[in-house]
Amino acid sequence: MMRHVISVPATIDASALAARLARKAAVLRDPSRRLCEGYGYQTVYEVPVALQKRLRRETIRLHAEALRSSADAVCDYSVFALLADWMRWLWSETPTEEWDSVLEEASATVERSEAIHHVVDGPRAAYDGSMRATLRKPTGSFAPSIANSVASPA
Fold first, then answer.
1. Which of 61, 65, 80, 147 is exposed most, by the fewest CB atoms within 10 A?
2. What is the pTM of this model?
């Protein structure tokens, strides 16, 4: 085996791929939710900006550590999605010098990834209360009015 990283949007369930890659090894899960819950929050999006940045950097650090500590690992998340999400939600709050530092920290994760599986399509992930957008088909009486819109964070 080797160090596998799955780059996948939060809306796609990559658990079958992760299990197939891991065979009998454990799948390393994204620690973001656990970190947020440790501070009393459900999602990173409700965390104040300064703490959110610390949590995001800690997630990147933990990702690198998980890959460093095991010659055989399957991560069901990737630093690419973490960085893209940061750019989407915190770009205006991140000075250039800080972003350079974040990228330097993230590069350790990329360097330790021996196989990167970029997933663009697959089964929809069930809403777990923490992902940023479910992109599920609207149901109920509101369906006609929002059928063509995309869910976005509050």
1. 147
2. 0.77
State mean pLDDT over 78-86. Answer: 91
* Strand ranges inside 8-154, DSSP E: 27-28, 73-75, 115-118
Q: Cα separation of 108 and 61, whole Å? A: 9
* Residue 134: predicted pLDDT: 40
Q: Which two tokens stand for residue 24?
A: 């009998």
Residue 56, φ and ψ in degrees, nearest 5: -65, -40
Q: Which residues make beta-bridge pairs with 12?
A: 124
The answer to whether residues 83 and 57 touch, using CB atoms and an 8 Å cutoff, is no
Between β-strands 115-118 and 27-28, what pairing exists: parallel, antiparallel or unpaired?
unpaired
Q: Per-residue pLDDT for 144 more than 70? A: no
Contacts of 150 (CB under 8 A, 6+ apart): 133, 135
Over range 83-87, report the average pLDDT: 93
CA distance 111 to 88: 24
Tell me the Ramachandran region of residue 115: left when phi exceeds 0, alpha when psi lies from -120 to 50, beta otherwise. beta
